[in-house]
Structure formats: C-alpha cells, structure tokens
Amino acid sequence: MAELPAQELPAREAMEFDVVIVGAGPAGLATAAALRSRGLNAAILEKSDAVGAVWRRHYDRLHLHTDRARSALSGMPMPKAYGRYPSRANVVEYLEAYAAKFNLKPVFNAPVRAVRRDGRTWRAEAGENSRTAPIVVIATGWADYPYAPTWPGIDEFGGPILHSSTYRNPAPFAGKRVLVVGYGNSGAEIALDLAEAGMDVSLSVRGPVNIVPRELFGVPILVFPAAEQWLPPRVADALNAPLVRFAIGSIEQVGLKRSLKGPLQSIAEDGRAPLIEIGTLDAIRDGRLKLRGDVVSFARESVAFKHSAAESFHAIILATGFRPDLRTLLPDAKDVLNATGAPLVSGRATAEPGLFFCGAIPSALGQFRQIGIEAQRIAEAAQA
Ligand SMILES: Cc1cc2nc3c(=O)[nH]c(=O)nc-3n(C[C@H](O)[C@H](O)[C@H](O)COP(=O)(O)OP(=O)(O)OC[C@H]3O[C@@H](n4cnc5c(N)ncnc54)[C@H](O)[C@@H]3O)c2cc1C
What we know:
By secondary structure, this protein is of the alpha/beta class. The chain is 24% helix and 18% strand. The chain is built from nine helices and 19 strands. A five-stranded parallel beta sheet has the order 7-18-8-9-14. Strands 2-1-6-19 form a four-stranded parallel beta sheet, covered by helices on one side. It binds flavin-adenine dinucleotide (FAD). Residues 22-28, 45-48, 53-55, 58, 62, 64-66, 71, 111-112, 139-141, 143-144, 186, 329, 359, 366-368 line the site of flavin-adenine dinucleotide. Flavin-adenine dinucleotide binds next to helix 1, helix 2 and helix 9.
C-alpha cells in the first residue's frame, strides 16, 4: 500500500464519491446535507434499515431535553407543531423529512466492519456495499457502546439487569421492586417513568450533582449559557444560583449533594452537562421515588449501598452511560483515538488526513446543536 504524504488527498474527479459517511443518524445526515449544499457527493453506509435507527428504539416517553429551536440540524428547522420539546417520534419524523429534503439516500443494511486507508483514499468495508473516497466521516454515535460497571456479587443477582439503552416502558416491571443506578438525564427520566406508573422504584446516586430546571421564567435553559458567555463560568454560576434554587428548590433537603463546581463551570472545565429537571425531584420529595447512595455490592436478591442497609430488588436498570470504543472500526488509524478507543477530536481535522468524526464527543450544551456545528465544519474542510 502506498504511503500517504501528509495532508495530500487524491484528485476528487477521479472518485465516484467525495466522502464516505458511516452512520445515518443525526450526525451522518447533517454531514451529508452540509456536503451536498457545497456540491459534494457523499455515500452514507448505515447498518440498520432506516435513518435515525437509535431514535426509533429509545424509551417510549422520551422527549428532547433541549428545546426545538436549539435542536434542529442545519438547513431545516423542526416544525412548530412538535412543541417546545419534541417527542421521540417527532425526532424520527424530522430525520426522515431531513433526509428527504436533502435527497440523502443512505445504503441501508450495510454494517461497516472496518475503515482502512487504501493508498490515498479511505475504504469503508461493508462487503458488497463497500465504498471508497478521499474523505471518511465516522458518525456512528455511542449507542453500540453501553457502559455497565461491575460490582462484587453482581453475577449472583437473580433478577434481570439491563442497561438504560434497552429500557422501553414500565410494563415489564409491574409489581417489581426496581433499582435504577445512575442519576444522569436518562436515569432520572426512567426512574420517573417507573414512579409515575406506580412501581416501587429506588434511584442510586453516586456523588454530588448539578441540577438545573428545563426552563427559567418560561425561557429554555440553554438560552442562558449563550447569553452569559461573556462572563467567566464561575461568575455566571454564582449569578444563576439563586434563580436555579428558586426554580428547583433545595436539593440538599432531599438528601442530594450539590457539586462544588456550578453547572457552567462543570461544562467548561470537565465537559459535564448538568441534569435537566423534568419532575424527578418532585417524585423524590413526595416519596414516589426513593433515593439511595452508591451501590457497594450485590447478592442473590439484594443490593448493598454505601450509607444504608441492603435492600431486596427484583430488577436493576443501569443508567450508567456509554463509552465508545472505535479500535475495531479503525484498526490502522494512528493517533486519532485515546487509550480506550474514544476519538480525540470531533468535527475537525484528525491526525489522519481525510478522516473525521462527527458528534463523537459529548457536548454539554446539546448534542444536536453540536452535531450541526461539526457537520458544517467538516463540509468546509472537505471543500477546501
Ligand atoms: C436517551 C437520549 C436522549 C438524548 N436527548 C438529547 C437531547 O434532548 N438533545 C440533544 O441535543 N441530544 C440528545 N441526545 C444526544 C444525541 O443528540 C443523540 O444521541 C443523537 O442521536 C446522536 O446522533 P449520532 O448521529 O451521533 O448517533 P446515533 O443517533 O447513535 O446514530 C449513529 C448511526 O450509526 C449507525 N452505525 C453505527 N455503527 C455503524 C457501522 N459500523 N456501520 C454502519 N452504520 C453504523 C447506527 O445504526 C446509527 O444509525 C440524547 C441521547 C440519548 C441516548
């Protein structure tokens, strides 16, 4: 295989496609649309049989936590009829309409097994659907990489243990005592879903948290960081704190610990998004949802916690997030992934000429918004 001189890519006119995109979720579609609007032609390879596959299987009650105005991909607003916080079904419908508007025709049922450099081009290997182009964009998301920690005794637990990504609705848990582990946005909403359905549900919270209301005085919360970006995050947090407290009440009173860093400082320094409150705190306050500390160990029918006695549970839901590992997908790429296989950068040039990631690093200010920004940047770089 010929060695590729740094930054040198083959003449575009020699190739059928300017770009190969792996994945037809929001990131793959937004990138393809941004390329198309610059006159570039992308092949999209998608392993499932439809666009937005991951949104088709999220839990039933899911609505965007970010407001419609700040969640649309570039080039097409979300319809007003979706309301301020579009539902999961709205998002699927929007992604279908988005693909239609930009005439994007992904190749479906085309799982890409590996992406390798082939001389001066990149080859996405998907059997008879393999495609080659000078530029490849990895838009494979995190859904395939659920993270499930392990605890002493977990293999002895007699009931089901599932990851939040496979939770759909409360029906299978009727009459069961359920423990949700992890107080992120998914864990908070799933615990609330179970509590509202009258289940006996507990929520295990490991450490201090930052919780913000979904809106302040009727204004979506994402508006505030944008308006306050000229302030140091620590100062903006100090100004916002009384308003946040007014909106959500005392979290200490329900037994939660407030993070030492405020929401904006956490975003700026650690890339950690705050929890957006949609009713979980009320459920804790009125006793429908029980708060527990960090999990210490499992036994056949019970779970032991750090600061309280062991309790029996029938089922466990791990809302413990995702940890993408792209080492198998990119077996030869150098200096683009960290030691655990997560991309080092997203939405801009990597150490490998012609290789880009879109939406690969969580954005604390809304992933859809971030995907839109990255898609535009990738298209600009591809056109240059
Ligand atoms: C429960 C939940 C709620 C969220 N709510 C919000 C919100 O309110 N606001 C917000 O801004 N963000 C939200 N996000 C974050 C983010 O916007 C979504 O996860 C979004 O779907 C990410 O888009 P994506 O295209 O990067 O990845 P995905 O939607 O995961 O799409 C990746 C696509 O790639 C395909 N694929 C994967 N591997 C391969 C392969 N090897 N070959 C071919 N195809 C492949 C998959 O089938 C999939 O179609 C939420 C995420 C979750 C999990």
